Amino acid sequence: MNIRETAGLAPNYFEINREERNYAAILFAALCQPGNIERFLELCGREDEVGPEFGIYFEYAYLRDLWFQIDSEDIKRSVIRDHLKIKGIEEIMAKPAEEINRLFGVAGTPSATHIQFPGKWALVKYAENFKDKDALLAICRFKWSFNIKPDIVIHLSKSKAICIEAKYESGEGSYPASDVEKAIFDQRNLPRVMQTALQRYMMEELLGVETDFWLVDSKTTRSMSHKKLNWKEVFEALNLEATPAFCRAMVERISSAETRS
Fold this sequence. Notes:
By secondary structure, the chain is α/β, with parallel strands linked by helices. The protein has a domain at 18-60 and 149-255. A hairpin with a 2-residue loop joins strand 2 and strand 3. Helices cover 42% and strands 13% of the residues. Strands 1-2-3-6-7 form a five-stranded mixed sheet. Strands 4-5 form a two-stranded antiparallel sheet. It contains 13 helices and seven strands.
């Protein structure tokens, strides 16, 4: 006997799905259908035209992937030196690669030949090397920006985008996430960094992309950081004729949901 038999329940997964990434993926697929991006832009009050630099991306990791396109160690040093705003960064980035990697607490054995990916810096290690609370917070925000992946990003051009955070039942996330890292923040009396604030920092400050931020969820509360749409009005604005039946069933399910924070 399996668990479904024990529970006396054997629904199709689309009938019970609570995973918000699935709903974000359905929205992504719908937006890729002909005419739907124009409908969505109209819903957002935008008059942008879709040009040659247009693209829609699911779980957007531009900053991470850009880093791995950089084949110059001098440029990697410049990326950190010019955009990590902490005291003494010029002196730090003049050090040998191995010393820089160790200072920022990379996992494993620090490379002696190249600057390692900032997303792999370890808070539990570099917290010992940076006692100033403002510097620690700046390093964390920089490191986390290489790891975050907004649900959907629509590039209207290379310098202009719409960032969509899609929620089902969960609220806005925050950093740090682990208990050990939270304890370090509490010891230093540092505030949590909200998910949406980190997205704004990554998109606008680090990537230099003028970004319109939207939250799509089923809650009746307002967002202090994002413009807001509910699932029902988003899906009603789109043409879903080409969407498979199971997806339309999920669309109907989330469109009828309404929760309160």
